[in-house]
Amino acid sequence: MALRLPSKVLKHILSFIDSNEDRNSVSLVCKSWFETERKTRKRVFVGNCYAVTPAAVARRFPEMRSLTLKGKPHFADYNLVPDGWGGYACPWIEAMAAKSPSLEEIRLKRMVVTDECLERIAASFKDFKVLVLTSCEGFSTDGIAAIASTCRNLRVLELRECIVEDLGGDWLSYFPETSTSLVSLDFSCLDSEVKISDLERLVSRSPNLKSLKLNPAVTLDGLVSILRRAPQLTELGTGSFAAELKPEAFTKLSKAFSNCKQLQSLSGLWDVLPEYLPALYSVCPGLTSLNLSYATVRMPDLVELLRRCSKLQKLWVMDLIEDKGLEAVASYCKELRELRVFPSEPDLDATNIPVTEQGLVYVSKGCRKLESVLYFCVQFTNAALITIARKRPNLKCFRLCVIEPFAPDYKTNEPLDKGFKAIAEGCKDLRRLSVSGLLSDKAFKYIGKHAKKVRMLSIAFAGDSDLMLHHLLSGCQSLKKLEIRDCPFGDTALLENAAKLETMRSLWMSSCFVSFGACKLLSQKMPRLNVEVIDEHPPKTRPESSPVERIYIYRTVAGPRMDTPEFVWTLHKNPEIGVSKLAIK
Amino acid sequence: MSESVVAAEHDYIGLSEFPTMETTTTTMSDKTKTRDNNNDGLNFRATELRLGLPGSESPERVDTRFLSLNKTSCPVSGAKRVFSDAINESNKWVFSPGSTTATGDAGSGSGPGSSVVKDGKSTTFSKPAVPVKEKKSSATAPASKAQVVGWPPIRSFRKNSMASSQSQKPGNNSETEDAEAKSGPEQQPCLYVKVSMEGAPYLRKIDLKTYKSYLELSSALEKMFSCFTIGQFGSHGGCGRDGLNESRLTDLLRCSEYVVTYEDEDSDWMLVGDVPWEMFICSCKKLKIMKSSEAIGLAPRVMEKCRSRN
């Protein structure tokens, strides 16, 4: 008792601790530390909205000011989760409105948000400041208008890649007429035109605006006029660059950009014509982040631009950059930390993807600080992977998408086992890994053994047998999220390693060989897991051995979900029959 | 699964284990389809790829998931399109609702014993041994290449943005998609329109080019939005039974509370189905499924139809 730290002192100490992981550890020390910690936590992160009830979160953290929630599993981004699965924001908003009215910030990812929800947010949180919706859907611009008009202290409104029912550009005029406190506005995912005059006026009366991301409907002229009014911007997402190339338009654009002396991040650039790129040259030396992934510009023009970006840390680009362009990046952009290369033709017919493994090798060799990679290409080699691992042991995130499923090392015709072994062994700080190409169980043995810090692992079209899953679940000490599609394994490994699942946030398996019986068994044996069988085409009767289309397993203290749609089976809903009821009856 | 991992097993050109698939793949020069077959052959050696409806007796696994060959890159759940594929591709396929799932039932809105038929022919759907690929090669070419759902893993948002930007640059990367046999505007590779439905929490985007007729469109829409109309179709049990010669769209109109409308280039809201299909896809900007009661001003014919039938 004499050694007890007074809670005031502890409170003071905790005020310096922001990381939730650390705070989680603190809260495990003893009851009084738990109490002090929970009463001081301001930023709450819930990685799976079904892992815990909103009420429990509100109860535990009375001083919550910021809530971040994630809903659907990651593979929902690629249409693997049927519509209507879940991830509804409303129950959370309702609970917070009742219990945490001082909430100021809400960040949602992959959730279904309705207009009513947004209106509730606007009405319930008096000092609401930040709304960030990433990959969300279910709302319209009316909901946005409600936020804009009611939240007088709104600082951040970002709609990132959401599916929004766009009822027109009026929402922009709903911001308060007096000066706003806007710091960041992102409406790049909206389709319809906003009135340029509304936008100009908004920008003029938002002196704190630092980040502005326009939608493609904003023209070059509009952009120029906005830039004139907001030269203080540090982040800019342009509108569409498709406009007739007139000399005076180019000069105006150039001048507008050259006045933006604080610009660090540039994105948008839809339909950018290469002739307009030189207008950006003046801001290049200051850029730390450049998103050219929607710019269908060819390599020579890209290189001209990129060779001026010596401070660049983050580059997103299309494969039109080619290996040669990446070689240039390797020599000019020495500060590069993150590289993403997207395919210009998102098709399986990937014969003409202009980047090969060589491009990534160049960058790995030349950019010492490179730690995050997302790379799409047609094929790869073990040698390249080994080089990358050797040169860049500091990689934290390595996502390689060899577009052709089962593509072996095209030089040796071997699986890419050795290559990924090198990555797993060499990159000791690797936290996120996506593998592709031809892989055998051996690859997963290596990964299981060596990828000690990997938290998220994505696998597609890989492996030979159940052994692969076994290697992963019995290894990978830090594994939190595992997502697998189209791999040939099922029950044995899953059931043998069931305990592992409670140490993870979630496991997704689709188009594998997991049987219905195994799902039922797992549900019965592991009450602290929610096991969801997601079958859009369930058979009329389900023998134990019939394979399921998708299975989503996650740990939870919230108990079974009450909002599952018809096509989701859970033990709770159908303990005996286990047949998903049909949606229409 | 075989233990040894030798490259020789992974023969991309043909699959020795599956003669049926091999013959079909060799008729296709499209490398994509070859690759798709590889996926099936390598992954599911023990399972023949079949268009087996759930419920059809199959001692082995019914590999319906690999039928989720999404025809386009539009954000429609691939699995849902299996059955619309079945209707779209071949005029012989028929649903016997007794063995279909929700989506099938939604379409026919009927009980056991009836079938939705195309072309007046009634062919009972029995256990097929026809791989999906073969079906696809014999039918008219699909609107765009066969793809595996969600592969390569690119977010729908990005796919859509690229699709719409591609449509503005006809010469750039879009030749392959233009080559599809489709009536209607050839310049654009895809024609994405938003589809919203009253009361639905979110809207969808579809590629009009993947459909060849109102029939296909309506069945696709039904499937997409069927989860929001629980009870609507089912409660009108008698409908659709004699839909032999009528478009499904009419059934939809007649039997449910919903009509499908679209916004045309002049920003007028019109009833879907009035103009020839080619004209429709040229002028359609947006689709909306609204309650019949709200569509009264738009479509007096709807009401007339309802009255005359009931």
TrEMBL record, chain A:
Q: Where is the F-box domain?
A: 1-48
Gene3D superfamilies in the record: 1.20.1280.50, Ribonuclease Inhibitor
PANTHER family registered for this protein in UniProt? F-BOX/TPR REPEAT PROTEIN POF3 (PTHR16134), GRR1-LIKE PROTEIN 1 (PTHR16134:SF50)
Identify the species of origin.
Camelina sativa
InterPro entries from the UniProt entry: COI1_F-box (IPR041567), F-box_dom (IPR001810), Leu-rich_rpt (IPR001611), Leu-rich_rpt_Cys-con_subtyp (IPR006553), LRR_dom_sf (IPR032675), Transp_inhibit (IPR041101)
Q: Name one Pfam family in it.
A: Transp_inhibit
What keyword terms does UniProt attach to this protein?
Auxin signaling pathway
The gene coding this protein: LOC104737477
Superkingdom, according to UniProt? Eukaryota
The protein here is known as GRR1-like protein 1
From TrEMBL, chain B:
Q: Where in the cell is it found?
A: Nucleus
**Which segments constitute the PB1 domain?**
190-292
> From which residue to which does the signal peptide run?
none
Report residue spans for region: Disordered.
23-43, 93-146, 159-185
Predominant location category: nucleus
Q: Where is the composition biased (Polar residues)?
A: 159-174
Question: Where is the sequence biased in composition, kind Low complexity?
Answer: 96-105
Q: Which UniProt keywords apply?
A: Auxin signaling pathway, Nucleus, Repressor, Transcription, Transcription regulation
Entry-linked InterPro entries = AUX/IAA_dom (IPR033389), AUX_IAA (IPR003311), PB1-like (IPR053793)
Its biological purpose: Aux/IAA proteins are short-lived transcriptional factors that function as repressors of early auxin response genes at low auxin concentrations.
How the protein assembles, per its UniProt entry? Homodimers and heterodimers.
Which family does this protein fall into? Answer: Belongs to the Aux/IAA family.
Q: What is this protein called?
A: Auxin-responsive protein
Species of origin reads Camelina sativa (False flax)
**What gene does this protein come from?**
LOC104721966
